[in-house]
Structure formats: C-alpha cells, structure tokens
Amino acid sequence: MTGEGHRRDNVAVEQIEVVVAHTERATLRVGEVFLKIDTDPARTDVEVEAMALVPLPTPEILWRRPPVLALAALPGTALGRLGEPSTASPAAWAAAGAAARLLHDAPLPPWPGRGHDELAAQLDGECAWLLRHEVLPTDLVTRNRRLAETALRPWTPAFIHGDFQVDHVFVAADEITGVVDWSEASPGDALYDLATLTLGHREHLADVVAGYGADVDLDLIRAWWSMRSLLGIRWLVQHGFDPHAPGCEVDVLRAQQA
C-alpha cells in the first residue's frame, strides 16, 4: 500500500474518552464508537443476547472480538448522573418510566436472576464488612438494613435491566433514544429497576411512576434504595469510586433516616 493510500484508510479522531475504567471493565469512546472491554465474557454474552430480546432501542452492535464489544453511540444525552441534579424534563423522566414498563412486560430472558436467598446472603456479608471496617456508623447500617430486608418479599419475576441507572438511559426531545449496559439483565423484581433509576433522584420518583402507569409500592422503592446502596459501597470503594460523594450512596442512606 502506498503512503497516500495508507493516509486515506486512517480516520482521525479528536480524542479517546475514558468513560469508565476499573480492574474488571473499561469503556472507551472513540469518535462515535464505544469500545467495551470486559474480563468476563459471560457478561458480554448476556449484554448481546439481552439487546436482541428487549423491546427498547439499544446501541447498534458494530462488531465483537472478545474481550472487546464495539457499539455505536446513541443520539441524545443521558437522563442524568448520580450525585448531580438532572436537567431533564419531567416528561423525559416519565418516558423513562414508560420504557421500564415496556421492558417489564416483555417475555422473561432464558437465564436465571438473583433470588431472595442470594440477595439476603449478600446483604448480610456487605453489612458485616461495612461495620467491621467502620465505613459507616452502626445505626446508619442497621436502619437501612431493616429497610432493605423489606424488599426481600415474594415478587413476580419481570425482565429487568438490572442496572437501570440514569446515565444508562438516553433521551432527546423528551423521548427515549436508547438504553445501554445490559450485562446485568435478568428476571427479577421490577421495582428494583425503578429504584435504581431514581437512586439519588427521589424528586423525580413521581414522574417515573406516572410514566410507568401501574400501581407502585413506594415503600418498596425506598427499600431497594437502601439495598442497592448497602450492596454497592464496598465494590465502589475497592474500585476507586467514592460513595461518600455528595448525592451518592452514603447520602442516599442518610436520607432514608429522615
């Protein structure tokens, strides 16, 4: 190949953006392409299969060469960020609730999800770690653990995203343009997705429920806020994130005492 031809085959990009990176996974943005690198191919298997099953818009899969999955960028912007006020409209939040309902009404995926016993064991282990390492005050852990345990009641399994965070939901003109990061998708409690979406954004819970269009037990949403926060703090600390940042998991736990 000549030098001129070689230059034509190269596409310049302004920069490579590190979206998230830790010892298990990394996501890079190169122009309009996201490169997801995962040490566990099973998570990528779930993500690819889930995107083929769900009735929601998802990123286009450009190619997969393990451990890398290349996805096209979605139009629009994320609904928000944990720890930051959301600038999205009430209509956009309601649209996210409607998207969750559409997903939860879909046929279940053919792989198992986490059951009550597994979640109870995880909660026990994480609370013990938080207390042993004096990460949080005992009364804060005890209060939130009691709340979290109320979520572990019988539920009818739904197809859940499993990590339905605000920064995984993209919107434009108050409409959902796509949902990303499906590696945690499974059968589970539909209210877990609604709680994950509104974690740290309780002021938008009414908009989400209105869009969801079904009776929702708000006490169980709050229970899942406690559960998700308690289960996540150790992982965040060990992977270089700060759950004590304003508006994040520790603040969520403190707000539960109000």
From TrEMBL:
<feature type="domain" description="Aminoglycoside phosphotransferase">
    <location>
        <begin position="54"/>
        <end position="215"/>
    </location>
</feature>
<dbReference type="InterPro" id="IPR011009">
    <property type="entry name" value="Kinase-like_dom_sf"/>
</dbReference>
<keyword id="KW-0808">Transferase</keyword>
<dbReference type="GO" id="GO:0016740">
    <property type="term" value="F:transferase activity"/>
</dbReference>
<dbReference type="Pfam" id="PF01636">
    <property type="entry name" value="APH"/>
</dbReference>
<protein>
    <submittedName>
        <fullName>Phosphotransferase enzyme family protein</fullName>
    </submittedName>
</protein>
<dbReference type="InterPro" id="IPR002575">
    <property type="entry name" value="Aminoglycoside_PTrfase"/>
</dbReference>
